[in-house]
Specification:
Rossmann fold; six-stranded mixed beta sheet
């Protein structure tokens, strides 16, 4: 059995009102892809932000490979080197070329040789179909291209786990599949990930396990086959009925990670 990378133990979080997270606990093992779904405002993004240290928790504990990382401030930057995060807004530096965006973290934060980092960046850009954009400025890229660069930038730090927060929410529909297929490729390569998404067909294709959040608690948990086809709770059934993912499953060119050639 693979090693547990991340442990979230009974965490609570509120913002001057009712709790956004109310006793959430979960474990993620090495190489596992956990997809977190649920209605807007249920606490999905807050959960990822707490794991990454962007939000402090009110109580509970978060561990990375057994080491407590919640509540740390002085060396939080070291934790974030191990926990990569990609947002829906890309967050590329607009005045820097793609290659400079990719080199900044590994060279400055990790102290790696610039030539070595550049070689790796070019290899990874090739992998996502963007090698020819290495010297381009972000403003010249499409939304899908920017998000693929953001994914490469996160991977350049060699994180132990990657958090993806609604990374296709700001994209036009025709750009969604080019980004999601990169994520599926990462999953097939064994990258450990926690993914928040509203793309149900993508969630079914990429997940090893699905968590359904409702009002700050994990209401249901199971395999993608079980959750999407035989949900245990009436609330999950109603949630899934609000999507027409089943009729669209293979219309966007998204290939399941276990059957990339089918």
């Amino acid at each position: 059995m693979s090693e547990t990378i991340l442990e979230v133990r009974d965490i609570h979080k509120s913002f001057d009102g009712p709790g956004v997270l109310r006793g959430v606990s979960l474990e993620i093992r090495e190489g596992e892809v956990v997809v977190i779904v649920g209605p807007s405002g249920c606490g999905k993004s807050t959960l990822l932000r707490c794991i990454n240290g962007l939000e402090t928790i009110d109580s509970g504990e978060i561990r990375l490979r057994g080491e407590v990382i919640s509540g740390r401030t002085r060396d939080l930057h070291l934790v974030r080197q191990k926990i990569g995060m990609v947002f829906q807004s890309y967050d590329l530096f607009p005045h820097m070329k793609v290659m400079d965006n990719l080199q900044l973290g590994p060279v400055r934060a990790l102290g790696r040789p610039k030539a070595e980092v550049e070689r790796e960046a070019l290899e990874m850009l090739e992998r996502v179909g963007l090698r020819d954009k290495a010297q381009a400025l972000p403003r010249t890229l499409s939304g899908g291209q920017k998000q693929r660069v953001a994914l490469v930038r996160a991977m350049m730090m060699h994180p132990e786990i990657l958090l993806l927060d609604e990374i296709t929410a700001a994209l036009d529909p025709e750009m969604v599949s080019e980004v999601l297929n990169v994520v599926i490729d990462l999953a097939s390569g064994g990258m450990t990930m926690a993914i928040v998404t509203h793309e149900m067909r993508f969630a079914e294709a990429v997940a090893d396990r699905v968590l359904f959040l409702e009002e700050g608690v994990i209401l249901e948990e199971g395999s993608p086959e079980q959750f999407f086809h035989e949900p245990k709770t009436e609330r999950a059934r109603r949630f899934l009925q609000s999507f027409t993912y089943a009729a669209r499953r293979n219309r966007d060119g998204i290939q399941p990670k276990n059957n990339p050639g089918d």
